[in-house]
Amino acid sequence: MKKLLLAAVKGYQRMISPLFPPTCRYYPSCSNYTVQAIEMHGAFKGSLMAVARIIRCNPFVEGGVDKVPEQFMLKRNPKTKDHIYLGNGITMTDDGPEERQESIEAMLDQYEGQLVIREEEQDAVSFLNRWLTVEEFSVAQLPDAYLKDIKAALLKEGFYHSKAELEENLSLHFFKISKTAESQSYYRHVHPSPIRSEFQNGKEIFCLLDEEIGVLDSNSPGLQEAFTLKRGITQKDIEHKTVRLFEYLLALNGQYYHQDHA
């Protein structure tokens, strides 16, 4: 019975599912969930779990990550409810650096051939100046509350392990990006951001960066992603699974994910 059910679902995936646009509100999709549930819990329990999943996959739910639980249950897996789906079959948690190792390993395997690995770490300020035409402003022009939020995020993400370490090592720089041929494409999407609260015209791109970490915030997502990808990573980042590596892999994953869904 188990083999028969699996054959039926996989036949649906090969011949029928490709004929329709994706509609499942969960990851993994209901058909993949069914296969995994039957393989993990057997024909009877797995089928019950699959039916329950299909019923709750409706327009009235938010959706999200709902992986097959290790224990038999007919409700959404509470252990993966708060996970974030990054696309390309990769998920992550928002619990902290330690919980991200699985996501890092998955993305490293997936994008092994696309990694830009530098022999030496490139200073972020020097790299930005070589890449684009910029004008530096004083960080003191930015609101204190905004800078406080940036520091809190760096601690939460694991770039620094304590406030003392952060204050000792953080080196912030605030730049306006001049509109040139090299930067013109990044002006296509300039969005409201606290980084430009002192500059209300909304027509210019700014970025806040740390000399070691790189761009911390920008009102141009394209600029922030491009900076991360062009600057690359080092072998040390890969060996130690650094937060900088994680940010780089997220940018790389986002680039290919958006291309696949264009």
Considering the chains and any ligands shown, give keywords for the structure.
262 residues; four-stranded antiparallel β-sheet; two-stranded parallel sheet; 10 strands; elongated
Structural write-up:
It is a single chain. The protein is an alpha/beta fold and about 260 residues long. It is built from nine helices and ten strands. The model is unreliable at about 255-260 (pLDDT under 50). The chain is about 45% helix and about 15% strand. The chain is elongated, with a radius of gyration of 22 Å. A four-stranded antiparallel β-sheet has the order 6-7-8-9. The protein has helices spanning about 1-15, 30-55, 100-110, 125-130, 145-155, 165-170, 220-230, 235-240, 245-260; strands at about 25, 65, 85, 90, 115-120, 135, 170-175, 205-210, 215-220, 235.
